[in-house]
Backbone:
């Protein structure tokens, strides 16, 4: 019982168990642009008697003025009566959200944690000298950088060195006929860090009736227990650790060279006639998180989108996932264009990722004769091909297979992943991101 | 989950609590002074994680084990983590109410929350729809929702841990019940067991046998209880359909007459004890939360209104905190769409202003020579507003001005408090309201002269004026405007608000107070789906249309009304439900799935009669070419689930005619729409 348990069971709903609910899960679509990412949240809504959304219509609010009747409106806006009232407690703000937003950096961290990745982005050009961690010490500096721990330790050392058993010396002063000088000398003999002035003051503070309490120094030694400084500190606690100006140390940042982490990601997608809606969607589901991930990992991320059928052309991100064309397929056209476009991003300054996706259909011999040589020619941290075949393999769809045969399954800078359903997306992402070799700087 | 009970944690919370003691006490005093009658509120200081947990649990500390809390927690956590969603307050409808303050809130936030909570607590205590769950007895024994939910949590947890009971089955059973959580009769007083009219179970079972047991002689039996009599009795009994009236509380109907479906035996079997018990619990919770769902706009608006009165008008936020507070308020009210806070608050202000305006106008119309025809011309409204301003003596009260309170009417001043103030026992600087009565405060905060409402008085339509004027007797009672205004009841606005918060729910509230002015000012419009274009289009910006659509969203939780029509359908103990069609058809996909869930709770085939709108493919094509909407045809359908397959069959119109309603129409499509 308890929320942790509820959370666990929720994660399993429709997946490991309760298949009866699988149909009621909405994952939402991927969305969001640069700067923020909207991750679809899993929502399970139990079936209920409801109105037909279309027949129901709704109420909207115009931003500037009321729109004209007949004007199309987008997706219905969330309505005030909507949603489960029970979680609509008074005071709770906002309605049903299918997304939560995060920034790419957080996303990359999450993914690293989730998948156990440790992709370490490599800095390329030196852009500036930056302050490193505060590890150097100086004797002056702003208060916030004062190394208090060090100062405390020094102070404690000093206290240990300077403290002595005052009570014992006070008892000594009560010895019959003793002089302050004798007490001082005895103390010196014991290497107690005491001053003559202190002894004189202690001596004069002894009340007359207590003078002669002890017959000799030996008697005091025999009857009064001495206490070491350590014992004393333990008993009294550290009331006064003497802080001295000379113990102050200020931490100072190391100057280190900061290499800017640049990345360029080339996304290539087959938009030919055979790439139907389902395949298109799977590509989007795989590519988008990859983009986010790299965006989160690097200081500066640039994206290049290439669509191709038998020819290739560069497109904007907004259009990238939507395009459909009718033509045949020649994957090498995209790599040729990629090669050309990458000239702007020299390998010495840029990390490069080239991701391509399609249904593995290609014109005959194109893979072996042209694509593979191009992939070998284009310097990149990683080349990846994502095959989407939701309805099983077509006979002539062998691009991925050929790549795998040529580069091997454990190649360091070529990854091939298969995404046949939504469930494969995570594995594919893992496959791709865990492939990158470590030594291609 | 993260119960960090370290001492440091406790001390920190205690320290925060100590700082809040005074605001809590004084907020209560102020709320009472303003005429509110809240349940006592217990405040708890909690940290961010605890707040997330509470929100996931719908505001309570313990709920039965269920994945949906996990879902909400997941959402809440992610929103907080990445979206910066900040939970300000939770308050439970309970007596005493429990409210939770997040420790990281600023003091200004805490004060805002506290004032807001006090108003919610008043609403819980006074609104009659909340009273339905408690049968109107709002004493502590009656309302103890936290204890009820806790009890349910423990009971269900026990069922789940029972080795004899499959945990997954319990969870599924809960889900089946939840599919029907809005299928209750939320307008009825809640009772644990509903008396449902149905066949009297045992009597007819084996009457012959029972007669035997009576040990009557054959002779007597032969005379009185002859074969014919027996046959007749049994026949009439079989023909009986129940319930007599359609019953909206489907949860209770299946509780009383439902069975479970035994998969192994392949037939209905009596429900297990735990199944009935869970049905009862789910139904009780559905009733408990129903009032909240039915009054969301009113309740939030009410809390926002009084929060604002206390924080801003009464300066409950210190000067230094005020900017912070104003910021918070602006954020809450500005979040888009029809948000219940701003919608509710505006409506409450409208209620107040309209009542006050009516008061003033009635008084003015009683001045000799003033009529609804000439009122606007002969009365100097600037001067009227001037007169309506609260006198300086109560508008600004400081220790130095206390003596001036002698000049104002007796009933505005709290004598006792004034004496204490004069002796320096009350901090008048901080709490000037203490020396006034509720009436005095109503005068002090009279709505019509507030800066943002100053135009309201003269914005009355000629039509409204005529309405007021025509039915006014005694229309020459005063000789001058001043005399008339002297008799204005300055508490009228608040009194009306108190009344409305007792008797209304969102539907009646919106119906009565959502005005044309409000709708047009906020650019509201309706949209409808076009069969011809396959998308939604703006349909109308007429106020009555917008209102109609809005009411659709609030009526019956925004859900279609479904009721039990027969528990012995087909004479085979099948369940027959009817969809009370109001011109908007059902989501048939959802309906099919829901029927499957109901089957589990009924154990025998389930049927649903409904009306759908059919549009001919050919008509759509024609419509597309002609750029107009095709005319749909309404048809009766019977959806049936027998445990294996769902079937949807046409039924003759006569069979569904009783479900159709001609007098409601939620369609706001104009005649010439897409042309």
Residues:
């Amino acid at each position: 019982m308890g929320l942790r348990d509820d959370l666990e069971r929720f994660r399993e709903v429709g997946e490991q168990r309760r298949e009866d609910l699988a149909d009621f899960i909405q994952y939402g679509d991927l969305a969001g642009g640069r700067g923020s990412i909207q991750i679809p949240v899993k929502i399970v809504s139990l079936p209920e008697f409801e109105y037909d959304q279309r027949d129901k219509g709704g109420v909207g609010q115009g931003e500037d003025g009321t729109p004209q009747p007949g004007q199309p409106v987008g997706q219905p806006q969330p309505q005030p009566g909507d949603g489960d009232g029970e979680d609509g407690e008074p005071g709770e703000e906002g309605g049903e959200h299918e997304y939560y937003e995060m920034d790419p950096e957080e996303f990359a961290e999450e993914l690293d944690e989730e998948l156990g990745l440790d992709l370490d982005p490599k800095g390329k050009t030196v852009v500036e000298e930056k302050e490193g961690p505060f590890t150097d010490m100086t004797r002056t500096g702003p208060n916030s950088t004062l190394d208090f721990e060090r100062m405390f330790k020094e102070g404690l050392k000093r206290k240990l060195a300077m403290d002595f058993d005052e009570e014992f010396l006070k008892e000594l002063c009560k010895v019959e006929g003793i002089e302050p000088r004798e007490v001082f000398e005895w103390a010196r003999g014991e290497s107690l860090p005491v001053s003559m002035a202190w002894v004189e003051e202690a001596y004069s503070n002894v009340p007359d009736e207590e003078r002669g309490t002890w017959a000799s120094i030996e008697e005091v030694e025999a009857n009064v227990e001495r206490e070491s400084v350590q014992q004393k500190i333990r008993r009294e606690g550290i009331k006064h650790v003497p802080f001295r100006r000379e113990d102050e140390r200020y931490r100072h940042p190391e100057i280190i060279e900061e290499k800017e982490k640049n990345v360029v990601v080339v996304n290539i997608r087959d938009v030919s006639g055979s790439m139907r809606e389902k395949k298109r969607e799977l590509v989007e589901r795989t590519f988008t998180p990859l983009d986010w991930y790299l965006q989160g990992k690097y200081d500066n991320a640039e994206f290049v989108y290439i669509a191709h059928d038998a020819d290739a052309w560069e497109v904007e991100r907004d259009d990238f996932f939507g395009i459909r064309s009718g033509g045949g397929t020649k994957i090498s056209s995209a790599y040729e264009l990629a090669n050309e476009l990458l000239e702007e991003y020299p390998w010495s300054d840029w990390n490069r990722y080239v991701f391509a996706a399609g249904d593995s259909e290609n014109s005959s011999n194109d893979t072996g004769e042209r694509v593979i040589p191009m992939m070998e020619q284009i310097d990149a941290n990683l080349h990846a091909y994502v095959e989407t075949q939701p309805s099983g393999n077509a006979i002539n769809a062998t691009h991925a297979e050929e790549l795998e045969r040529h580069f091997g399954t454990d190649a360091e800078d070529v990854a091939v992943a298969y995404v046949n359903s939504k469930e494969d997306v995570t594995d594919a992402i893992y496959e791709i991101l865990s492939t990158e070799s470590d030594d291609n700087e | 989950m993260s119960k960090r009970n370290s001492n440091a944690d406790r001390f920190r919370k205690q320290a925060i609590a100590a700082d809040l003691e005074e605001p809590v006490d004084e907020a209560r005093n102020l709320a009472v002074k303003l005429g509110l009658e809240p349940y006592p509120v217990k405040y708890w200081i909690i940290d961010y994680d605890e707040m997330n947990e509470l929100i996931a649990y719908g505001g309570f500390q313990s709920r039965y084990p269920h994945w949906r809390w996990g879902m909400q927690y997941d959402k809440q956590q992610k929103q907080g983590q990445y979206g910066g969603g900040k939970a300000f307050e939770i308050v439970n409808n309970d007596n005493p109410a429990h409210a939770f303050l997040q420790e990281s809130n600023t003091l200004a936030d805490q004060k805002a929350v506290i004032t807001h909570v006090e108003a919610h607590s008043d609403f819980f205590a006074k609104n009659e729809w909340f009273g339905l769950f408690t049968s109107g007895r709002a004493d502590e024994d009656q309302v103890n929702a936290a204890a009820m939910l806790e009890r349910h949590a423990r009971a269900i947890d026990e069922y789940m841990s029972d080795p004899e009971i499959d945990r997954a089955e319990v969870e599924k059973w809960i889900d089946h019940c939840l599919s029907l959580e809005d299928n209750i009769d939320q307008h009825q007083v809640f009772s644990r067991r509903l008396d449902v009219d149905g066949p009297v179970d045992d009597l007819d079972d084996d009457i012959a046998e029972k007669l035997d047991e009576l040990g009557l002689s054959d002779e007597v039996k032969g005379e009185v209880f002859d074969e014919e009599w027996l046959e007749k009795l049994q026949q009439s009994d079989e023909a009986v359909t129940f319930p007599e009236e359609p019953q909206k509380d489907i949860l209770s109907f299946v509780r009383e007459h439902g069975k479970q479906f035994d998969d192994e035996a392949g037939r209905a079997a009596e429900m297990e004890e735990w199944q009935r018990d869970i049905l009862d619990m789910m139904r009780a919770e559905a009733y408990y939360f129903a009032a909240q769902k039915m009054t969301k706009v009113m309740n939030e608006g009410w809390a926002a209104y009084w929060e604002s009165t206390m924080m801003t008008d009464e300066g409950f936020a210190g000067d230094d905190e005020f900017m912070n507070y104003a910021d918070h308020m602006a954020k809450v009210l500005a979040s888009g769409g029809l948000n219940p806070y701003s919608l509710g608050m505006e409506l409450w202000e409208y209620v107040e202003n309209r009542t006050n305006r009516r008061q003033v106008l009635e008084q003015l119309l009683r001045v000799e020579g003033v009529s609804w025809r000439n009122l606007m011309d002969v009365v100097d409204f600037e001067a009227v507003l001037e007169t309506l301003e609260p006198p300086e003596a109560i508008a600004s009260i400081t220790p130095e001005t206390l003596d001036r309170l002698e000049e104002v009417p007796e009933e505005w001043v709290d004598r006792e408090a004034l004496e204490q103030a004069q002796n320096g026992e009350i901090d008048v600087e901080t709490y000037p309201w203490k020396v006034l009565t509720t009436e005095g405060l109503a005068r002090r905060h009279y709505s019509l002269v507030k800066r943002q409402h100053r135009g309201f008085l003269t914005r009355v339509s000629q039509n409204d004026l005529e309405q007021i004027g025509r039915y006014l007797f005694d229309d020459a009672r005063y000789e001058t405007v001043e005399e008339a205004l002297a008799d204005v009841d300055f508490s009228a606005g608040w009194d009306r608000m108190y009344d409305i918060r007792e008797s209304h729910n969102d539907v009646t509230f919106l119906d009565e107070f959502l005005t044309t002015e409000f709708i047009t000012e906020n650019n509201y419009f309706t949209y409808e789906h076009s069969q011809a274009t396959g998308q939604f289009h703006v349909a109308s910006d007429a106020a009555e249309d917008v209102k109609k659509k809005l009411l659709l969203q609030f009526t019956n939780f925004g859900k279609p009304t479904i009721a039990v029509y027969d528990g012995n359908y087909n004479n085979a103990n099948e369940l027959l439900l009817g969809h009370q069609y109001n011109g908007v058809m059902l989501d048939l996909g959802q309906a099919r799935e829901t029927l499957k869930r109901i089957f589990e709770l009924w154990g025998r085939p389930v049927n649903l009669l409904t009306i759908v709108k059919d549009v001919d493919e050919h008509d759509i094509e024609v419509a597309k070419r002609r750029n107009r909407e095709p005319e749909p045809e309404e048809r009766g359908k019977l959806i049936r689930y027998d445990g294996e397959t769902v079937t949807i069959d046409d039924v003759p119109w006569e069979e569904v005619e009783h479900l159709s309603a001609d007098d409601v129409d939620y369609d706001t499509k104009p005649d010439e729409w897409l042309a």
Observations:
- Chain B touches chain A through 108 residues (CB under 8 Å).
- DSSP finds 29 helices and twelve strands in chain B.
